[in-house]
Amino acid sequence: MARRLVFTLAAVAAATLLMTACSAMGSSTPARGMGFFVTSANPGKGADFGGLAGADRYCQALGTAAGAGVRSWRAYLSTTAAAGQPAVNARDRIGSGPWTNSKGVIVANSVDQLHGANMLTKQTALTEKGDGIMGRGDATNLHDILTGSSPDGRAVTSADGKDTTCGNWTKSGDGSAIVGHHDKTGLDESAPAKSWNSSHATQGCSLEALKKTGGGGLLYCFAAN
Questions:
Q1: CA distance 217 to 215
Q2: Which of 18, 99, 120, 186 has the highest local Cβ count within 10 Å?
Q3: What angle do CA 212, 216, 218 make, to 5 degrees?
Q4: pLDDT per position as a tens digit, 141-185
């Protein structure tokens, strides 16, 4: 009888420890989980996301669908000053890092590293589903990622007044936006061709126009917490 009681108590203790461990793992998973992805698709209106707020909602929706909705997702987009509103820098709205992709691989440990010697490549710039994105040399080139940003992640005001953000992400027709190359590959070996966030301007803001230079209206999304 005593031996049975000891065995029962031991079993209860083991079960309690297992439950505690599982609970601890569950509570810490969001902090260690996915913190970066490239959107797997465009919502359908080219560079018109309904402004920054709409782009953030889109990132949040995709993150939630992928099981990472407990985090606050932000689109890596800058905006220029307009209608009495100041410019917004993409680098200032994505948190402090580190950020890992859907496979748990770190793409950058900090904002400074993200805009310096980051670990973003075609192999690490994955979608929220864990899929790779076609780039230069593939059947369909989708390496243009919308950013509206300078190499250091700040808003860009063109000297000739040219649009750099498709009307602060509200246009799906005429206009232009700065894009980066997620595969860090371009027509030559220049710095812009290899830039993940500031390579060149698009030929318009519609999906059709974005495709002309090798894009699909995709975004970078970062977890801000």
A1: 6
A2: 99
A3: 140
A4: 999 999 999 999 999 988 788 999 999 999 999 999 999 999 999
DSSP secondary structure letters along 98-111: -EE-TTS-EEESSH
**pLDDT for the residue 17:** 37
Closest C-alpha among 198, 93, 116, 118 to residue 156: 198
Give dist(CA 78, CA 84) in Å, integer: 16
Top pLDDT among 46 and 21 is at: 46
At 33, list the tokens: 């989980």
Q: Give dist(CA 28, CA 44) in Å, integer.
A: 35
Separation between Cα atoms, residue 196 and residue 191, nearest integer Å: 10
CA 197 to centroid of chain Cα atoms: 11
What is the tens place of the pLDDT at every residue in 131-150?
999 999 999 999 999 999 99
Q: What share of the chain is helix, strand, coil (3-state, %, to 5)?
A: 30, 15, 55
Q: Among residues 177, 188, 184, which one has the least CA distance to residue 42?
A: 177
CA distance 147 to 222: 13
Q: At 112, which amino acid appears? A: D
DSSP tag of 171: -
- Give Dmax (Cα) for the chain: 90
Is residue 67 predicted with pLDDT exceeding 60?
yes
